[in-house]
Amino acid sequence: MAASSAPTRFSRPRFALLVMLGVYPLITGLLYIVIPLTEGWSTWQRTLVIVPLMVVTIIWGLIPGVQKLFRGFINPASR
What we know:
This protein is mainly alpha-helical.
C-alpha cells in the first residue's frame, strides 16, 4: 500500500525569512573579520572582498542547508 502524501506548496515568505536569519550573522561575521584586515580601504574595496565570500557561502552552504533542515516549514501542505 502506497503512502499518500498531501501536496505541498513552496512558501517564499518562509524561505525568505529563514535565509534572512542566516544571512544576517554571515554578513556580520564577515564584516568583523574583513574590516580589521582592510583598515584604510574604501567601502567598494571591502565590498569587493566580502561579496564573493558571501555568495559562495549562501549558494553552496546556507540555501541548501535551509532547504534540507526546514523542508517541512518552507513547503507546507496545500489547503
